[in-house]
Amino acid sequence: MADDRHLRAALGTYPHTRALKTGALSNADVTFDFVEVEPIHKSFAPMVRRAAYDLSELAIVTALQALDHGRPIVLLPVVVAARMQRGCLIALGSKGTIDPRDLVGKRIGVRAYAQTTGMWVRAALREDHGLDVEDFQWVTHDPAHVEEYRDPAFVIHENTGKGLVDQLRGGDIDAAILGNDLPKDDTFTPVIRDHRAVDQAWVARHGSMPINHVVAVSEEAFATKPRAVRAAYELLGRAAAEAKRPAGSPDVTLFGTDTLRAPLRFLVEECRRQQLIKRSLDVDEILAPAVALLEGIAIP
Known about the structure:
By secondary structure, the chain is of the alpha/beta class. Helix content is 35%, strand content 18%.
């Protein structure tokens, strides 16, 4: 095929992807036809619903839900976004000190129940405080990117036209979970007050940063453009290895099927526990296509 080296791609612009997007790093076996999507999460639904891209960044929860529902994607062993999560649960500072247990039975706002940051915060509430997902009222605005998924019965969907920050200010919700849109002013305060120390202890215990976004390819591209997919994976690794990050910033990138097995097993079990997926997906089966295609590629 004349175009079997072209990959229509949607990736956020990060220090570890910029060289691919500028063409500073290249491989003769692949040409990226980048589609700029801002914010990048707007590419997730088109990818899992209609394979709008050959290669796309994808939230890990969205990826697992897509696999759970048999959507035609293949997960590559590449993480492009990860971060500490416990500081993403916030409340109004004017209400004084709030302990996570004070929120039992209360309304916590999150953009979507299937949002990956929300999953991580709920995992933290379980691990650190013994609190279950059904101990709270989850108030959402958006549905999941995977259209077949249905929120559990304890999730409330409200479309008031107000953002989470305005809902929190107005008292419509008692706490909120935000990610990249986390407000910077001191009007709000993290509910988990020692979140940085607890997050660092979690990373030390588990050996990886909490994963937010991975890379997936469509089944069609995976089957018809294997050389391009292999080259894309190799370039992602090179770009990450050569990226210049601010001093002291975490290395958010993870590569390789062996590296991702343990984090994926944790995520699969947590998603099943939170009723985000219906079955315990087999991590070896998830990674098997990538193992077969990418065998022998050196990881920087």
